[in-house]
Design goal:
The N and C termini lie far apart (48 Å). The protein contains five helices and five strands, in the order αααββββαβα. By secondary structure, the protein is of the alpha+beta class. The structure holds zinc ion (ZN) (2 copies).
């Protein structure tokens, strides 16, 4: 039964983060969200699973300046994150994994006109997401 409980907790965290892959969460956000769904998984089990998922590369983790906690976001594309460009909302921190093809023209022009080769994996565009734009 114990193993079953463990798998269940893990799957629930993955399912929840997957369904909200465009958002970032702190560990306590995840605890809150899961208990709202009527689940009874204890906090330490959730924390342990989050750590493990991060180590496995299933979650992105980053630090936010406005809140004093690490944020997590589900990423199926984690394997290729060093190859593509990201965009982040300056307000809520939401991360976007961008398709490099969008920048094919810009990449060519930067090379031609500036002699600059862009490192996609290290480039983050800063913007403001739709959600934040409509909130204020
Ligand atoms: Zn990525
Ligand atoms: Zn935002």
């Amino acid at each position: 039964m114990k193993g079953e409980y463990k798998t269940k907790a893990r799957n629930m965290i993955i399912d929840y983060l997957k369904a909200n892959a465009d958002k970032r969460f702190t560990a306590s956000d995840i605890v809150k969200a899961l208990s709202k769904n009527g689940e009874t998984i204890d906090r330490s089990t959730i924390y342990r699973n989050i750590d493990r998922l991060f180590e496995e590369g299933k979650l992105l983790r980053y630090k936010e300046n406005d809140i004093n906690a690490a944020c997590y976001q589900y990423s199926e594309e984690h394997d290729s994150c060093h190859k593509h460009m990201h965009a982040q909302c300056a307000n809520c921190g939401k991360i976007y994994h961008l398709d490099n093809n969008i920048f094919a023209d810009a990449e060519e022009k930067l090379k031609e006109e500036y002699g600059l080769e862009i490192d996609f994996g290290k480039t983050v565009l800063i913007g403001r997401c739709e959600e934040c734009e409509t909130k204020e």
